[in-house]
Amino acid sequence: MISIITAIYNQRAVNEIFWNNLKKFTYHKFELIIIDNGSTDGSAEFFESVGAIVIRNKKNYSYPYSQNQGIKVASYEWLAFLNNDIIVSPKWDINIISNMDVNSLEVATVCGIEQIENFSETKKLKRRWKKIKNLLGLLGKSQLILNLMHTLMYGNWIEFNKKRNINFLNKIKEGFVGNTVIIKRNALDKIGYWDERLQGADFDLCLRTKKRSDEVGDIKPVHICLDVFNHHYIRLTAKSYYPPFADSDNLISIEEKWSESERLYLKSLNK
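Structure (tokenized):
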């Protein structure tokens, strides 16, 4: 069983696409925990109608604060932190858990447009997605347009992922893609919950896990599972209006926590 934790603020069309594909392509039984940060478009009601656990915040809270709310009510050993603006791949959950078991990973991510097996292939993928979203993005963000973007990007989604799974079975690469992060619950005893001071919490999680690996050696750094690919709409919804974070006074930059030499590790992962 797997606990899926997702924070939202409005974006009803995106949320419905997310749910429809999550229900279709998730292999294991799962609980979906939605952290609703004050949606006004019926998104919270929609997720309640499909049986999700919905935590309603009256105000908009930062990513790490929201994820920690989800952890506190999650029931299962496997914790999956998913963005709402993604489309998961067929059997994404069983594939990534299998990969993590083979490679003895306690923290891992999928691959995606942000990063795949090497810099050259990632660049090609990003270029293709940029052309598609810039063209069709002019037509709006309806379910029809978002689904059309996805189809033009990959063609047959099932076959695209089947090919990747065969070609990269159980292969990994040190690094992270933040739209889908999987953590075994016992890893939290080693690296802790999300740091609620940093909105860029995935960067921080990567650095903390690497530091623990170097200094204690009881956990491996975060790795990307190359045989599992989730689509991310990447900033397509960034222009949506978001209220200021209710916890903004608590937030610091990653530069305030991590030195320049420590942050160089993050740059090394994009090669």
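The chain has a mean pLDDT of 95. The radius of gyration is 18 Å.
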